[in-house]
Amino acid sequence: MRWCGEADEPADDVDNTEECAGDLSYEASSESCVCEAGLTRCGDTCVDTEEVCAVAIDDFAFSPASLTVVEGTTVVWTNVGTETHTVTSGTPEEEPGAVFSSGDLAPEDSTEVTFNDVGAFPYYCEPHAESMRAEVVVLAAD
């Protein structure tokens, strides 16, 4: 498992790999930054398909706060802090827990979700909803 980097936006009007962050390279046919075949996008890092993307819950923050993956990727959240937290899809105001909800995660507890649908998936910590919000962006697989 690897701790993943911040999400990057697909490059616009890019014709070389210098515009893509980290391990990503530009693919003209999809007009986006992608990993080479056999690897999975985890933020701006490309990992073996058997690996998962990881998000740390460290005291009062999700790290990274924004993560871009491809459909079929599993994201694992681990509470590495000292407080109890949750990982709850949606926002407190809109569809809380409609897609996933971890329940309470004590220090050192983990939860995971496999993202099979394309889209943006905001999530938050229920006890700390005002300050702990983040998002997973899921792109179509090739």
Task: Give a description of the structure.
- The protein is elongated and about 45 Å long.
- The strands form four sheets. Strands 1, 6, 7, 9 and 11 form a five-stranded mixed beta sheet that branches. It has a four-stranded mixed beta sheet with strand order 8-13-12-10, with no helix packed on it.
- The chain has a single domain, classed as Cupredoxins -  blue copper proteins (Immunoglobulin-like, Sandwich), CATH 2.60.40.420.
- A hairpin with a 2-residue loop joins strand 4 and strand 5.
- The protein has 142 residues and is mainly β.
- Helix content is 0%, strand content 39%.
Quaternary structure annotation: single chain
Number of strands: 13
> From N to C, what is the helix and strand string?
EEEEEEEEEEEEE
What general form does the structure show? elongated
The CATH homologous superfamily is termed Cupredoxins -  blue copper proteins
Q: Tell me the helix content.
A: under 10%
**What is the CATH topology descriptor?**
Immunoglobulin-like
- Radius of gyration from the CA trace? 15 Å
Helix/strand/pairing class, anyone?
mainly beta
- Give the termini separation: 22 Å
For the largest beta-sheet, the strand count, sense and barrel status come to: 5 strands, mixed
CATH hierarchy class name: Mainly Beta
Strand content: 35-45%
- Chain-averaged pLDDT: 81
Helical segment count: 0
CATH architecture classification name: Sandwich
Low-pLDDT sequence parts: 1-18
Number of domains: 1
